[in-house]
């Protein structure tokens, strides 16, 4: 017979945990609201503004003496196309759905984790799965949201320039993605090791 020992957090700890949960709900609500608003904004497919990444593109900006124009290199800018190709318009819709789904998914996993921790269960198989799932959802969102954004921006460039301006840029920073993946793997490993130690400890009781 084994007994799983739990240690109920203090009242202050529980308040802190549920405060984060409330903040997570607010963030999820904001993500869903902004996604819906963006989809409603672009569906008429008229004068669609998209965030575009540039590479080695020169532009003039009035930052010199008395507003004189000076050459600068664009990194990002919002461009407005009179309309978008159907594929690019669909990419924006999918982008917003992915954004909302990934944020809501991460928040649900973390609230579930907070609920378990609030009753004293820190290391368990369920918590390990929740942490890993939240990490993978976050990574997927971090990669897919700019991916679909790039598709929309390329469609805007094609429509504005009549397909004479080629600006295929991948806006996902590989180093940032590696760091995020490393942190997710580290946290998942900590919970996995804690779960195994908890299971071994329970077996000795």
* Helix-strand pattern: HEEHHH
Briefly note the structural class of the backbone. alpha+beta
Strand order across the biggest sheet?
1-2
* Major pleated sheet: 2 strands, antiparallel
Net shape: elongated
Strand content: 5-15%
What percent of residues adopt helix (DSSP H or I)?
55-70%
Number of strands: 2
| Uncertain stretches of 5 or more adjacent residues | 1-5
How big is the Rg? 23 Å
Mean model confidence by pLDDT = 80
How many helices? The count is: 4
Number of domains: 1
Distance between the termini: 8 Å
Describe the structure.
This protein has 205 residues and is α+β, with helices and mostly antiparallel strands. The protein has one domain. Helix content is 65%, strand content 13%. It contains four helices and two strands. Strands 1-2 form a two-stranded antiparallel ribbon. Strand 1 and strand 2 form a beta hairpin.
Summarize the structure.
By secondary structure, this protein is of the alpha+beta class. The protein has four helices and two strands, in the order αββααα.
Give a quick set of tags describing it.
205 residues; alpha+beta; two-stranded antiparallel ribbon; disordered N terminus
Layout of secondary structure:
Elements: H1 11-42, E1 48-61, E2 70-81, H2 86-118, H3 125-161, H4 174-204
Antiparallel strand pairs: 1-2
Helix pairs in contact: 1-2, 2-3, 3-4
């Amino acid at each position: 017979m084994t007994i799983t020992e739990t240690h109920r957090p203090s009242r202050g700890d529980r308040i802190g945990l549920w405060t984060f949960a409330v903040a997570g709900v607010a963030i999820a609500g904001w993500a869903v609201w902004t996604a819906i608003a963006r989809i409603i904004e672009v569906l008429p497919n008229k004068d669609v503004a998209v965030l575009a990444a540039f590479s080695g593109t020169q532009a003039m900006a009035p930052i010199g003496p008395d507003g004189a124009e000076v050459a600068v290199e664009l990194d990002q800018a919002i461009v407005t196309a009179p309309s978008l190709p159907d594929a690019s318009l669909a990419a924006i819709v999918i982008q917003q759905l992915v954004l909302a789904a990934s944020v809501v998914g991460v928040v649900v996993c973390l609230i579930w984790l907070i609920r378990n921790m609030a009753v004293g269960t820190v290391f368990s198989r369920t918590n390990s799965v929740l942490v890993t799932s939240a990490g993978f959802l976050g990574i997927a969102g971090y990669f897919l949201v700019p991916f679909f954004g790039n598709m929309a921006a390329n469609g805007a460039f094609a429509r504005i320039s009549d397909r004479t301006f080629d600006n295929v840029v991948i806006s996902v920073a590989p180093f940032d993605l590696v760091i995020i993946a490393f942190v997710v793997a580290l946290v998942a490993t900590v919970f996995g090791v804690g779960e195994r130690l908890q299971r071994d400890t329970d077996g000795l009781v």
